[in-house]
Every structure is written in structure tokens, then in C-alpha cells.
Fold:
Amino acid sequence: MLHIIPIPAFEDNYIWLLHNEKHAVVIDPGDGFPVIDFLQKNRLSLSAMLITHHHNDHIGGVQQLLDYQSAPVYAPQYESFTFNHIAVGEGDVVTLPQIDMQLHVMWLPGHTLGHIAFYNHDNLFCGDTLFSAGCGRLFEGTPAQMLHSLNRLKQLNYATKVFCTHEYTTKNIAFALTLEPNNQMLINRQRQVQQLRERRLPSLPTTIDLELNTNPFLRCNQAEIWRNSQAVNNQELSVFTAIRALRNHY
Structure:
């Protein structure tokens, strides 16, 4: 049986660890210490690491983990890294035989220009592109690039579980309600997330279906969001650009 575990790091990061009680695959290890601690306590062997982009809070622990146990590292082909890695990009398939899994690679420029995601029919590991009720800041890409990337993710199976790497849901929902205060699913979601966080439980994973119904960055064609966005017109890119700017200062 495959387990997908969030290992907290820093203030709000999650390092996702997939394991079958023998072998483990780690995604975006910004810090190696909590990962090594988990591996040792659960007697797991590190089989591979997957990297979505080059920001230090996603790669800061890679070399430490390699020093602990050698394992292949799969990282974006359009970004540079100081550690040894296998470059992967759009259309590639990463085979992880130790945990009996294959993950496809999707190139998602926006947050960074080389950002990628790993996905299959059931799971999406999307780094800082799609967040729970939000999306990543545009550090390198353009609004048009990020919107295109998000629209690609909208095409995935509705039941796909979304594993992003930050616990931003509470604030993202509060912002979303300024744009769509009459969205009952969003109102209900706020209550559910509040209950989870009060119990110190993760609000993740989410699903593509839940995001399609509550995430304003996937709902730029909704009239209520356009009216509250301060966008110059109701075109999808204009609305997306406007609400991304609003979220930057929220």
C-alpha cells in the first residue's frame, strides 16, 4: 500500500514523501533534516527525489539527502542545479519501480520559467503552480504563461488529488471570498479548513474538482469575480492578471 505523507518544513512548507513501508520517494525537499528523521524512524530506504523548481525552499535539502543515501534526482530540464540530477521535461515519464509508480512530467512556466509538475491519473504534485484556493506568485513567468499552465491543470481528471507545497489555504480562501462572496462551496470550504487547522491538520491534498469550484484563479470567467477584480475588461487574461496583482498585496 502506498502512503503519501506531508512532512512539515519551515513555516508553511510540506515535503511530500511517498512510501510503501520499505522504499520512499521525496518531492521538493527544502530541508533534509526532517526527511532523514522520518526515513530513520520508519526504516525506509530513499529511492528517488523529484524536484518541481529551483527555489531553495524546494531544493535546500537535496545535497544533504544525497550525502545520507545516494538516489536519483529528477529535476526540470530548463533550470540549473548544483547537484547531480536527471533532467526531465514535458512529456517525459519518471518510472519509480521501488514504489510501483509512474509519473508523467508537465512543463508549467509561470512561478518560474522551468517549473514542472509530476502527475498520474490519481495524483498531481505541482510545487508552487496551483495552490489550494490559489496559485503561485509570478517570479519569472508572465500572467499569460501562468494562466496557460493553470488551464492545462484544469483538464486533469476531476478526482485527481492535488499535492502542492505550501499551507496557504486559510489566507487563500479569505482572499477568494473577497472576489466571490456568494460562492456557497467556498463558504463551506472555509469552515472545513478552519476546523482542520484548529486541529493542526493539513488542509491538503485538495482535488481538481474542488479547485474548479472554489479557486478564483481557475474561475476567471465567472461574472462575480470579474466585477470584483478591478480588471479592465472581462477577458480571462485581464481578470487573472488583476486578481494575481490583488493577491500579491492581500
